[in-house]
Amino acid sequence: MMCGIARGKVLPRAFYRRDSREVAVALLNKVLVGTDGRSGRIVETEAYCGPIDPAAHTYRGKTARNATMFGPAGHLYVYFSYGMHWCCNTVCGEVGEGIAVLLRALAPLTGLEAMRRARPKAHRDRDLCSGPARLTQAMGISGVHDGIDLVTGKGGFRIVDDGTPPPREPVSTGRIGISRATGEAWRWYVPGDVNVSRR
Description:
Blueprint: E1 9-10, H1 13-16, H2 20-26, E2 31-34, E3 39-49, E4 76-81, E5 85-92, E6 99-110, H3 112-118, H4 132-139, E7 157-161, E8 171-173, E9 187-189
Antiparallel strand pairs: 1-7, 2-3, 2-7, 3-6, 3-9, 4-5, 5-6, 8-9
């Protein structure tokens, strides 16, 4: 695995100000970077589409919990799942639209020692970030990061383009762990990547 600090061009606001299904595919192979040296390549995503998507947190409107999703694109929406784990999403679209992309898996790049300390039960590096809850644990993301700006990076995280293009033919499947809108193929992943949560 790589060592040092992941470098690249920070994704601009306009990158996120699109349909979440477009952003979900475009995020594949981009790099999530923390200020503490931890980083990972995004290899699996899911799109959530607000008022047209019964599986989206924003389907029934704005609440205190989902307020970040209705805010400006390029911010991080972090929520507590099943009373156990944090999950993180990039806010997309226009203000008030309530759409986002769930980051489901990373391929660890840098700061692996810190990731291993954060996830001591992971026996293999491929298990460090292979799922949305594992990803947040490994990267040190929690509720305090809800609403941070990925474009300015002031909240400690940003997403960068290091020159690696998205896969030419990403795999598309139904989303995982939901009970509504299960027929929508709005989950994408990098084919052949060992860090994907489920193939």
